[in-house]
Amino acid sequence: MAERVWFPSTSGPRLAGLVDVPQGTVRGWGVFAHGFTLGKDSPAASRICKQLAREGIGMLRFDNLGLGDSEGDWGDGSFSHKVGDTAEAVRFMEGTGRAVQLLVGHSFGGAAVIAAAHLVEAVRAVVSIGAPYEPAHVERNYDKLLERIRTLHRALLVMHAPTDTTVGIANASQIFRAARHPRSFVSLEGADHLLTGKNQARRAARIISAWADPYLGATD
User: Fold this and answer.
1) What is the pLDDT of residue 117?
2) pLDDT at 140 over 70
3) How far apart are the first and last CA of the chain?
4) Distances in Å between the alpha carbon of 46 and those of 40, 65, 144, 190?
5) Per-residue pLDDT tens for 149-164?
6) Dihedral, CA of residue 90, residue 94, residue 100 and residue 103, to nearest 10
7) Mean pLDDT, the chain, as a whole number?
8) What pTM did the predictor assign?
9) pLDDT digit string (tens) for 84-139?
10) How far are the Cα atoms of 105, 142, 171 from residue 59, in angstroms, in the given order?
11) Residue 30 predicted with pLDDT over 80
12) For residue 142, what are the CA distances in angstroms to 17, 60, 115?
């Protein structure tokens, strides 16, 4: 079951999102950030979030500025906007009584969630999938991104496919080496960058579900 939502971006225009709500017991809540030119309905975003919801983790996925159903002009967006808007998505969820403890990002969104985690205190776990270590779109912010990996102070799961021809597996190695513990790495054998193959996204979601379990729910 998906709930359609809207929330304000950091620059003003409203962003459109979908909350995939678990039908049974809720283990926790998360936010998903998609790739640079993708959207909330891309295969990776949709299939991962739906599978996580089936496993009790409700997820908000949203369209970046000017993409999909969101307002604004895509050309006005930037890495900083993506980071800020991901944090706004977390705050929106918190405003509905759904405390977000998990951030998941695919491709460009993987770099964004690492940076966004620094802006939202409640987040305890971050997952990057097929993320670039030196995104071309964040050249001016590269040093800051590297420092954010080093000072994440959250559990980090790095997922990448050795067969990814868009963002090479070396990127995952660099992110993993820059990170501090607790950190984990999972190789998505046989997957492509967009996780379009049969069950690739669902498999990634099941791994995320199991890995994130200690970081979900009550913090007392």
Assistant:
1) 97
2) no
3) 30
4) 6, 18, 30, 20
5) 999 999 999 999 999 9
6) -10
7) 91
8) 0.93
9) 999 999 999 999 999 999 999 999 999 999 999 999 999 999 999 999 987 654 44
10) 12, 28, 26
11) yes
12) 28, 27, 11
Residue type at 144 in one-letter notation: K
**Cα–Cα separations (whole angstroms), residue 220 to 10, 77, 213:** 32, 38, 15
Which whole number is the average pLDDT over 5-21?
95
For residues 49 and 57, give the distance between their C-alpha atoms in angstroms, rounded to a whole number. Answer: 8
How many beta carbons lie within 10 A of that of residue 137, not counting itself? 14
β-pair type (57-62, 14-20) = antiparallel
Tell me the two tokens of residue 13: 């225009």
Give strand pairing partners of 14. Answer: 8
User: In sequence order, which residues have a C-beta less than 8 Å from that of residue 79 and are 6 or more positions away?
Assistant: 108, 111, 112, 115, 135, 137, 138, 141
